Amino acid sequence: RKITHPPPRLFLSNSTSALIIQGSTSESFHAGILHEVTVISVVRRCVLAFSLLDFLDCGRGAPVRMECNNPSDFRIEADGVVYAARSLQRSPQHALVLLVKAIDGTTQQQWTTQVRMEPPALSSQQVTGNTDLMEISFPSRRNSQLKRMKRDWVIPPINVPENSRGPFPQELVRIRSDHDKSRALRYSVTGPGADQPPTGIFIIDPISGELSVNKPLDREHISNFHLRAHAVDLNGNQVENPIDIVINVIDMNDNRPEFTHQIWNGTVPEGSKPGTFVMTVTSVDKDDPKTANGMLRYKILSQTPESPTSNMFTINNKTGGIITVAAGLDREKVPQYTLIIQATDMEGNPMYGLSNTATAVIRITDVNDNPPEFTAEMFSGEVRENRVNVIVANLTVTDKDQPNTPAWNAVYKITGGDSTGRFSVPTDPTTNEGLVTVVKPIDYETSRTFVLTVEAKNEVPLARGIHYPHLSTATVSIRVMDENESPYFEPNPKLIKLEEGLMPESALTIFTAQDPDRFMRQKITYSKLSDPANWLRIDPNTGRITTIATLDRESSYVKNNLYNATFMGLDDGKPPASGTGTLQIYLLDINDNAPKVFPQEAEICEKPEPNAINITAVDGDLNPNAGPFAFELAHRPFDVRRNWTITRISGDHAQVGLKIGFLESGIYEIPIIITDSGNLPMSNTSYLRVKVCQCDINGDCTDQQHIMAAGLGTGAIIAILLCIIILLILVLLFVVWMKRRDKERQAKQLLIDPEDDVRDNILKYDEEGGGEEDQDYDLSQLQQPDTLEPDAIKPVGIRRLDERPLHPEPQYPMRSAAPHPGDIGDFINEGLKAADNDPTAPPYDSLLVFDYEGSGSTAGSLSSLNSSSSGGDQDYDYLNDWGPRFRKLADMYGGCDD
């Protein structure tokens, strides 16, 4: 069939090259290369690949091999992609022709095409003003009205490669309107990259409408731009609807892959099988991941060390996952591997892909594949007898596993030679040695040597398929050394039974010690260590024990009938050893204690109700040498049986009562004869002291009787009463003196005697008046009396303790609301009389309130400074009419000249 191709454009991904397929012709064929002649313009250097694109096999399915006539400069892959094998530099005056041949692998049929690469020439657009630029026209209008663009009408986007080197500005497209034929128009674009940030990237010629890019673009910064084109007339009126223009930034391979970490750390157990996952490394590429520019491939460049092989690991070229591919990982030989990992974009193509490297450190973790092994088959040690918690031998082992891990830590176990469990083998956590330790005393006379079998294992089991070697078991020989052991008493304690009351110098028993050192001939001497009552003596050579005092069961040193004494046996070894033994003497009771009455004192009322006292018999002996007891009153004095009676209640208790209904207060001693029930009975006369006293309603003795019962005589009681009386008299005298002193103070005269000269002396009153409690007056009365209520003329206030009793308040005169100068004298006289008759007036100087004098008084000023007459011209006799308080003043100033 005949296929005609329009002239296409192909922009390749290299910032230094631009390959343009400008045109081709086709022939009719069934299979082969569509373009017989392909012309490619080469700008500067060409180092990248381009594709022949249209090779059709028409479904033949046979393999096709491609060749070119210049293999030193170009290389063709099986998929028809042509690569520049080296950097090309051609003269602008000559063109390079490349012949490409496709050969059918089955029929050997051949097809040929020609690729002509020639230097670029100035296009007609650059010469004539870009008349061949692709134009974008505004939609036509109908009926002189702007027609809205349909929503499904989309202008193809404009593709601009990133990182272009210009020259700038570089034209992209021409915007035009059909109206520019009839009138002058102005074109503009708006949007990000034009008039919005980032501004200045795209510019448009307002007259020709040519849209240009003003600087290189960066897809990783902004991948596309959305602009809007406008057309207006010279008056600024819109003549076309705005159209949207999308500019896509074509990605170019301008970013290397970047690993997220420069050093990657991973672990894998030693002995892992091939295919064991180790770790994953990742890298990122800022280029478009949908294109080959951002498609990464991984590979391992090197492995250090290369043991046991150089390819112990492999990596998934797409995911970056590292796995093992060979067996033989041994931490004890190679503890760590270092891999150099490379990531390459362009799907890993080594010719034109960009690469980067990182380091992967793989640490081989330990597993328990090495059992502990003893450094020797035989170990030896020695220990002295009777020693415990001592180390007698150190067992050393070797283990190739990682130190201080469960696979290295050794655990020791005694498997033979220690049937009595006298040894243990703990592990030293620092050195991993086995410490053979004695945990139970060893007797030289019983066992002189021990041969132990010890096994060593790790804390965790060995890895599968590994068995413990022969050297994991060792033999330990231990020699026991003899020592001078302490003598021991047998039995200890030793118990003997004796009756109390045994006389001094009586033999008790022989208490001897034995020497455990059967292979040593030693002598033992004895001594006394503890004898609380100092009753015993021991023979130092024979161990015979005799008494040196009478044994008494009722002694305070005897507890629960047992008396304990401690003795020591000392041998003559080097060094000497000693042992102790305890002798327990169980003392049997005899009837050697007479009974007594308890309690020995009691109280009873003069008229007792009831009139009985309960008593108890106590005996230091035990039954049958104690109760039951017999009670009876003594025959003397004779009044005992006349006044008292005794009645047995039980074997240990009796009741003492009065025969008479009344007994005078006092202390009485009642003799009571008590007999025990021993084989040879013992009797004793005990005295019961009874206090007879006067009792209250509760049956208790009164206080006075208690005092008498305590032993106070009549003289002491009288002395106490006299002291109480004297104390009361002193208190009374003090009170009388205080009263008298207060009366003298109240009777003190208000003024000095007439014969004293007030002008030449300093008067001493001794009393300046009371404080706040004495000033029992209301200062508000000095105000205008017309405003006061009658009830508030003289408030009660606070009174002194020595003040006279309260009486009805006197009625002081009240002035009328309108004062008259003529009656002020009468008013003052009435006030003075009321004050003199007031029983509540204090006996000291105080403020006496009369009334408000008012203004305009005919009496004039009282001040002597304002007086026109001298003091001698005045008549003071009227002071006698003012009461007894002013009579002294009248005598002083109103009398005769002498």
Automatic annotation (TrEMBL):
<comment type="function">
    <text>Cadherins are calcium-dependent cell adhesion proteins.</text>
</comment>
<keyword id="KW-0677">Repeat</keyword>
<keyword id="KW-0479">Metal-binding</keyword>
<keyword id="KW-1003">Cell membrane</keyword>
<dbReference type="GO" id="GO:0030027">
    <property type="term" value="C:lamellipodium"/>
</dbReference>
<dbReference type="GO" id="GO:0042383">
    <property type="term" value="C:sarcolemma"/>
</dbReference>
<dbReference type="GO" id="GO:0099634">
    <property type="term" value="C:postsynaptic specialization membrane"/>
</dbReference>
<dbReference type="GO" id="GO:0001764">
    <property type="term" value="P:neuron migration"/>
</dbReference>
<keyword id="KW-0130">Cell adhesion</keyword>
<dbReference type="GO" id="GO:0005509">
    <property type="term" value="F:calcium ion binding"/>
</dbReference>
<dbReference type="GO" id="GO:0016339">
    <property type="term" value="P:calcium-dependent cell-cell adhesion via plasma membrane cell adhesion molecules"/>
</dbReference>
<dbReference type="GO" id="GO:0007043">
    <property type="term" value="P:cell-cell junction assembly"/>
</dbReference>
<feature type="compositionally biased region" description="Low complexity">
    <location>
        <begin position="855"/>
        <end position="872"/>
    </location>
</feature>
<dbReference type="InterPro" id="IPR039808">
    <property type="entry name" value="Cadherin"/>
</dbReference>
<dbReference type="Pfam" id="PF08758">
    <property type="entry name" value="Cadherin_pro"/>
</dbReference>
<dbReference type="GO" id="GO:0005737">
    <property type="term" value="C:cytoplasm"/>
</dbReference>
<feature type="compositionally biased region" description="Acidic residues">
    <location>
        <begin position="768"/>
        <end position="777"/>
    </location>
</feature>
<feature type="domain" description="Cadherin">
    <location>
        <begin position="596"/>
        <end position="702"/>
    </location>
</feature>
<feature type="region of interest" description="Disordered">
    <location>
        <begin position="767"/>
        <end position="788"/>
    </location>
</feature>
<dbReference type="InterPro" id="IPR014868">
    <property type="entry name" value="Cadherin_pro_dom"/>
</dbReference>
<dbReference type="GO" id="GO:0007416">
    <property type="term" value="P:synapse assembly"/>
</dbReference>
<dbReference type="GO" id="GO:0016342">
    <property type="term" value="C:catenin complex"/>
</dbReference>
<feature type="transmembrane region" description="Helical">
    <location>
        <begin position="707"/>
        <end position="738"/>
    </location>
</feature>
<dbReference type="GO" id="GO:0000902">
    <property type="term" value="P:cell morphogenesis"/>
</dbReference>
<dbReference type="GO" id="GO:0048787">
    <property type="term" value="C:presynaptic active zone membrane"/>
</dbReference>
<dbReference type="GO" id="GO:0060027">
    <property type="term" value="P:convergent extension involved in gastrulation"/>
</dbReference>
<keyword id="KW-0106">Calcium</keyword>
<dbReference type="InterPro" id="IPR015919">
    <property type="entry name" value="Cadherin-like_sf"/>
</dbReference>
<dbReference type="GO" id="GO:0043005">
    <property type="term" value="C:neuron projection"/>
</dbReference>
<dbReference type="GO" id="GO:0007498">
    <property type="term" value="P:mesoderm development"/>
</dbReference>
<dbReference type="GO" id="GO:0030057">
    <property type="term" value="C:desmosome"/>
</dbReference>
<dbReference type="GO" id="GO:0005912">
    <property type="term" value="C:adherens junction"/>
</dbReference>
<feature type="domain" description="Cadherin">
    <location>
        <begin position="152"/>
        <end position="259"/>
    </location>
</feature>
<keyword id="KW-0165">Cleavage on pair of basic residues</keyword>
<dbReference type="GO" id="GO:0009986">
    <property type="term" value="C:cell surface"/>
</dbReference>
<keyword id="KW-0472">Membrane</keyword>
<dbReference type="InterPro" id="IPR027397">
    <property type="entry name" value="Catenin-bd_sf"/>
</dbReference>
<dbReference type="GO" id="GO:0014704">
    <property type="term" value="C:intercalated disc"/>
</dbReference>
<dbReference type="GO" id="GO:0045177">
    <property type="term" value="C:apical part of cell"/>
</dbReference>
<protein>
    <submittedName>
        <fullName>Cadherin 2</fullName>
    </submittedName>
</protein>
<dbReference type="GO" id="GO:0014069">
    <property type="term" value="C:postsynaptic density"/>
</dbReference>
<feature type="domain" description="Cadherin">
    <location>
        <begin position="490"/>
        <end position="597"/>
    </location>
</feature>
